[in-house]
Amino acid sequence: MRSIRLIARLDIKGPNLIKGIHLEGLRVMGSPNEHALRYYQQGADELIYMDCVASLYGRNSLSDIVQSAARNVFVPLTVGGGIRSVDDATHLLRCGADKVAVNTAAVANPKLISDIARRFGSQCMVLSIEAKQVGDHWEVYTDNGRERTGLDVIDWVKRGVELGAGEILLTSVDREGTRKGFDVPLIRAVTQEVTVPVIASGGMGKPEDLIDAVRQGEADAVAMADILHYSRATVGDIRRVAQAAGIDVRNYEYV
Amino acid sequence: MKAFFGLPEEVIFCKHCIISNQRPSSTVEFRHKHDEKKATIGFDEHGVCDACRYHEVKEKQISWERREKDLVELLDKHRRSDGGYDVIVPGSGGKDSAFTSHVLKYKYGMNPLTVTWAPHKYTEIGWKNFENWIHVGGLDNILFTPNGRLHRYLTRQAFINLLHPFQPFIVGQRIIGPHMAAKFGVKLVMYGENQAEYGNNPDENYKPIMDRKFFSVGNPEEMFLGGKPVRDILAEKQFTLNDFAPYIPPSGDYLESKGVEVHYLGYYLKWDPQECYYYAVENTGFQANSERTEGTYSKYSSIDDRIDMFHYYTTLIKFGIGRATYDAAQEIRNGKITREEGVQLARKYDQEFPKKYFKEFLEYISLTEEEFHATVDKFRSPHLWVNENGEWKLRHAVWHESGVNSAR
């Protein structure tokens, strides 16, 4: 049986961990590494680092942060933001990332997905999708939820997997930062179409919110930010709620 | 090089934020004429602008506890419990007025009447936020919509004569508060943020009260609207003086006799636009837009009017300062972004032409595309713009500074 992974997500701008609502109004929350270490110690199964100004500068600036995280955080690290080439991905993997997440550059150049997957394997190539509901479907956004692409999320996710994406990081812009729970229909729509693991992101207000994302949405992992950054729950609290609901998660004793 | 509008001939950018010394101060709009020489933001000998200097004062020298006590004292003087309104809050239901009105009612126990001078053309998200402000936030509101035929005429004149299409709107928005206060027998009008923080005469930051000159006038026929004397507009026989009712500010004497005072909440409470966003999301059902506004990166401020981007497009033309620069400068001061990020944001977005509602804007002011561009080009000051092979380029931009790497 598959274990559901609990992933702490860290959105980073310059030297700071930040958090917004609908990816807007980005509040400075503090030092990324202090938070990362805390979540690791609480038993996060993985960490995701996203550089949210990477598209603006045309580069990912997380090498230093990832390098220092890799020294004392021993769970898989996914790094995203501003990855435009196989070389960019190589650089971040050398810094200690285990996987890379690509959004904007993959939309502009879908071949990048295959290039990265061929070079490092699909397990390493996470397709990051910022999805926003438009009418009765979901549209793909880029640039931290600021630009529309006209792409349909379901079409895009299928295409991405065909091209070699080994995992999907699915962020609901509508729910992100709102604490209103996950966009379960979105998650379900995506998980029904692809066989690769899907990480649900955006909207976790309380530990119980994960139950619907997993049971109804059939997410393979949940990414959490707001709930952890504002210390509304620890990873341990969330793990206990999942276990109590009969959801299989990694056993972890926080000492 | 010749500078239009009396702007400083040498262009400099603040070393702390990214605003330039071309930024004009607010003017008394109903005296605004074409040949007016503009007062601009001050810079000190270290190359730092007044707005940044004031921000330091705001962070370090002002006792916000003391100011809040003053606020409570002021509110106590006006507070009513007989079912009448005790404060007028002008606003649109955007994050700032949502915060102002809601905090006055639910934290300080006032009974505000909110009043809205309608946008030129509501956006969908703007209308939704306006409705939520009232329905979710729990506030009373009067939505005032001026005669559209006259408002369109004035906006057209303001565009052609001043390249300032928002001028009639600004006039209306500024006087609607005092107007309604006088009508409802309310003595206190509370606006949100003090615009002076962004570079008006800094002395105004040390007063809680808006100068009456901004909303009072002597003879209405001597007012200038759209850069044209009202007398001349009347002579064209399209409109009568009665049509101008909402633009004619109540006289200073009248306001004085009624005891109307106009204050800014930003004087009393430490103002942070981003925190207003959080407050409005939590308390009044406010939502950011579904995509960023053209000309900038943000999607939560000034999103209720379809022609809003043309205001900032005209500031880009006249002063070389676009919307992204205004937004980024404010965010740099408030510690939300670094100067480096601000420079990149301005480089990327400041000069973006607002296509999305261009047609609607042209229809609104009854202008053709050619007339639009011809008018715009007349207002490009030679000290700011140069035409190279048919393409207009800024002579000075903050992203030309040495040390700024352009993105790959």
Which structural traits does this protein have?
heterodimer, A: 255 residues, alpha/beta, 8-stranded parallel barrel, globular, B: 408 residues, mainly alpha, 15 helices
Any chance you could write out the topology, listing elements then pairs?
The complex is a heterodimer of chains A (255) and B (408).
Chain A: E1 5-13, E2 16-21, E3 24-30, H1 32-42, E4 46-51, H2 54-57, H3 63-72, E5 77-80, H4 86-95, E6 99-102, H5 104-108, H6 111-120, E7 125-134, E8 137-142, E9 147-152, H7 153-163, E10 167-172, H8 184-191, E11 198-201, H9 209-215, E12 221-224, H10 226-229, H11 235-244
Parallel strand pairs in A: 1-4, 1-12, 4-5, 5-6, 6-7, 7-10, 10-11, 11-12
Antiparallel strand pairs in A: 1-2, 2-3, 7-8, 8-9
Helix pairs in contact in A: 1-3
Chain B: H1 50-60, H2 64-78, E1 87-90, H3 95-106, E2 112-117, H4 124-135, E3 140-144, H5 148-162, H6 167-184, E4 188-191, E5 224-225, E6 228-229, H7 230-235, H8 252-258, E7 261-264, H9 265-268, H10 273-284, H11 308-319, H12 323-333, H13 339-349, H14 358-364, H15 369-378, E8 385-388, E9 391-394
Parallel strand pairs in B: 1-2, 2-3, 4-7
Antiparallel strand pairs in B: 5-6, 8-9
Structural write-up:
Chain A has 255 residues and is an alpha/beta fold. Chain A has helices at residues 32-42, 54-57, 63-72, 86-95, 104-108, 111-120, 153-163, 184-191, 209-215, 226-229, 235-244, and strands at residues 5-13, 16-21, 24-30, 46-51, 77-80, 99-102, 125-134, 137-142, 147-152, 167-172, 198-201, 221-224. An 8-stranded parallel barrel of chain A has the order 1-4-5-6-7-10-11-12, surrounded by 7 helices. Chain A starts with a strand and ends in an 11-residue tail after the last helix. The mean pLDDT of chain A is 95. With 408 residues, chain B is mostly helical. Chain B contains 15 helices and 9 strands. In chain B, the strands form 4 sheets. Chain B has a 3-stranded parallel β-sheet, with helices on both faces. In chain B, strands 4-7 form a two-stranded parallel sheet. In chain B, helix 3 (95-106) packs across helix 10 (273-284) and helix 12 (323-333) runs antiparallel to helix 13 (339-349). Chain B is globular. The mean pLDDT of chain B is 90.
